[in-house]
Amino acid sequence: MLTKRIIPCLDIKDGRTVKGVNFVNLRDAGDPVALAAAYTQQGADELVFLDITATVEARDTLASLAREVAREINIPFTIGGGIRSVGDVSRLLAAGADKISINSAAVKRPELVNELALEFGSQCVVVAIDTNLIEGEWYVFTHGGRKPTPLKTVEWAREVCDRGAGEILLTSMTSDGTQAGFSLDITARLSGMLPIPIIASGGAGSMQHFAEAFLEGKADAALAASVFHFGSIPIPRLKAYLQAQGIPMRMDF
């Protein structure tokens, strides 16, 4: 079994890390660069930075943050929010990001996934899917979870994979911020169906939830925010717990 990844997620609003419940009721969680440095020292495998209002407010992407973060850490990191073009991605990668994440722009123009994979390689392209369970069916939402779409999550995930996405960041809006556990059914379905890694996101509240994401959800990585930002689950303790459950972890930190 390949080593599984633990990924803290830093949702960015107005230059600060924030966290809410079900994508709303945001509260401040600290300086993103300082948090990035701390998580690197604690053994995080990767980091994800998402500007949760960039698409809504049509702001520029986060090249300045990428430069600051790249100076402070030595692990891979992904940046997303407001990315609409090859030029946007080029600026972020030049500033130091290892990968980019797209969501709303890919739904609006799916060909963007092909263009980015062709220009930069699939390993750089993460497609974020915010999904919500509506009357028994998982649907895709965009614009930071604010806008429903008619796209079914399973069909959309298959399409972006075929178009060249290197990973899918799957966030369950149903579970996000609740700390009640990941949505294992949709995670396992995509993990079993697609040849690319699935990052489980939304709902982490205990170390057992992470184990479930890997063992039942078959995820390649698990992403969380609140439990890391507010100190309820230290990353070294989490990794030791998962290793003891037979889940391979990178422990050289």
What are the key terms here?
single chain, alpha/beta, 8-stranded parallel β-barrel, 12 strands, about 30% strand
Strand percentage:
25-35%
* pLDDT averaged residue by residue: 90
Number of strands: 12
Number of helices: 11
- Structural class determined from secondary elements: alpha/beta
Q: Indicate the low-confidence ranges by residue numbers.
A: none
Q: What is the molecular shape?
A: globular
Spatial separation of the terminal alpha carbons? 20 Å
Helicity range of the residues?
25-40%
The topology string of helices and strands comes to: EEEHEHHEHEHHEEEHEHEHEHH
**CA radius of gyration:** 16 Å
Biggest sheet details: 8 strands, parallel, barrel
Strand order of the largest sheet: 1-4-5-6-7-10-11-12
